[in-house]
Amino acid sequence: MRKLKNRSGSISVQIISKTQGKYQVVKTIGSGHTEQQVQKLWYLGRQEMERLSAQSKIFISEQDTLFEQAMESLANASIRTVGPELIFGRLYDHIGFNSIHQGLFRHLVIARLAFPLSKLKTAEYLYRYQGVDLGVDAIYRFLDKLNDQLKEEVEQIAFAHTRKILKGNLTVVFYDMTTLYFEASDEDDLRKTGFSKDGKHQNPQIYLGLLVGLEGYAVGYDIFEGDTYEGHTLIPFLEKITARFELGKPVVIADAGLLSNDNLKALQAEGYQYILGARIKNESEQIRQRIQEQEWKDGKVIRISRKNDAILIVAYSQKRARKDGHNRQRGLDRLEKQINRGKLTKSHINNRGYNKYLKLEGELTVKIDYEKFRADQVWDGLKGYITNTKLSNLQVIENYNNLWHIEKAFRMSKTDLRIRPIYHRLRRRIEAHICISFTAYCIYKELERILYMDKSTLSVKKAAELTHNIYQITYTLPDSRHTKSKLLKMDDQQAELCRIVQKNCWVLQS
Length: 510
Prior knowledge:
Blueprint: E1 2-5, E2 11-19, E3 22-32, H1 35-56, H2 62-72, E4 79-81, H3 83-95, H4 103-114, H5 119-130, H6 136-165, E5 172-181, E6 205-212, E7 218-225, H7 234-245, E8 251-254, H8 261-269, E9 274-278, H9 285-292, E10 301-306, E11 310-316, H10 318-340, E12 358-361, E13 365-368, H11 370-375, E14 382-387, H12 393-401, H13 404-415, H14 427-453, H15 460-466, E15 471-476, E16 483-487, H16 492-509
Parallel strand pairs: 5-8, 8-9
Antiparallel strand pairs: 1-2, 2-3, 4-15, 5-6, 6-7, 9-14, 10-11, 11-14, 12-13, 15-16
Helix pairs in contact: 3-4, 3-14, 3-16, 4-14, 6-14
C-alpha cells in the first residue's frame, strides 16, 4: 500500500503490485484531507489487501492436494477424547492399580472420575469417547463378580500408597460413616430404611464406613445394613482393618456420632487410644454445672475427669461463639417464618436440629419456646472432646480438627464422584459400585495432592473438567500408509495439568 499526494492537497491510499519491475495500481481505496481520514483509509486498505490475498490463492499446490486427501480419510472415529486416560490413567498406574489385570475395572474407574454417570451412560461414554464397545450387560456381569475378586486387592494398593505418602505415619486414623440412599423404594437384606442424615427417610439406604490417615488418605472401607446403629460399627471395622494391615493400635479419632458408653468401654478393653467429639449438653448434671460455672474467654481450655479413665476437654472460642449464635438465630428466623405461614404441625416437634425449640400449646397450636432458645446461649462457643490419651489439650484439639479431611472425603465422593444416589438393587452390584468409587477417590485425592505440591491454581474439579477436551487424532500417511496418532494442541491450563501429572508421577515412581 502507498499514500499518494494529489495536486488538490488530498492524499490517496492505493494498493499496488509489482510485476517484472513495473508497478501497477490494483485498487484506490479513496482520498482524504485530514490525517484521521487517511488513517481510516489505510485501515480499510489493509482489510482489502487481506481479502485480495485470500482470493489470489486459487491454485492448489501438490502439498495442499495431499493434505486434503489425508483429511478426507478422517472420520469421527479418528478423533478420541484421551484426557481422562492421559491424566487419571497415569495416576491409576502411578498409585499401583495397574497391577489389577482387569481392563474393564480401569475403564469403569476412569469413567467414574471423568464422567460420573449411570452404568448405561458409562457404556455409551466408553463407546463414544474411548472406542470401547461394551454392552451394559457385560458391565453388569463384571460387577456381579468384581467385589469378591477385587475389594481386598484395591484396599491393599490404597493402603500401600497411603503408607508411602505418609512415610509410614499411621499412628493416628480417622473414622466416620455416611448414609448412601437408593432411588428404589423396596428394602432387602442390605438396603434398609433407617435414620438418614440427609433427610431421605423414605428411601432405603446403606451405611458406608471409611477409615483414613492424616490429610484424608484412604486406608479402608466397609458397608453396613441401612438400619444399623452407627455406634455399633466402629469396633468390628477397626479390628478387621488393623489386623489386615498390621496397624497395631493407632489412636482412633471420630465424631460424636460414635460416642457411646459401649464404644468407650470396648475401645478401652481392646487397648485403643481415642479422641471422640463430646456432646457436652448430654453430660451429667454435675459436669454441665461445672462447665457453666466457668468464666469463659477466648482460648480457654479445661479438663474434667470422666468415668472409664476418660478425660473430657472443653475449649471456648469467640469465633465459634459468633458462629453458633448466628446459626441459632438463623434457625429461629426460619421457624418463625414457617409458623407464620402455618406450615408447622405437631409432627414437627422433635429434637432434630432447631425443631427442639418448638412446643405445643393446647392440642393443636405450635409455638416457639423462647426460654429454651435463650438458655442455649450459654453453650455458644464451647466444644468438647473425650479422650483416654496422654496428649496435651492442644494436641488433642489439633488431632481432632484433622477430622475435616474425612468429611471432605465424603463430600468429594458425593458431589464430584456422585457416589449417590445408587440405582443398583443387587447387593453384589452395590458393593462393586462402592469399590469403584473408593478407587476413584484414591486417584482424586492423589491429584489434589500433586496440584497442591506444585502450587497450581487449578482445583481438582477444574482439572477433571479440563480432561474432557483433550483430543487425539489418528491418521494414515498417504504415501507410506503408516498410521499415526497425535495429541491435538492443548490450551495453557491443559498443558499445565499434563506437565504436573507427568512430573510428579515420574518423581514418585523413580
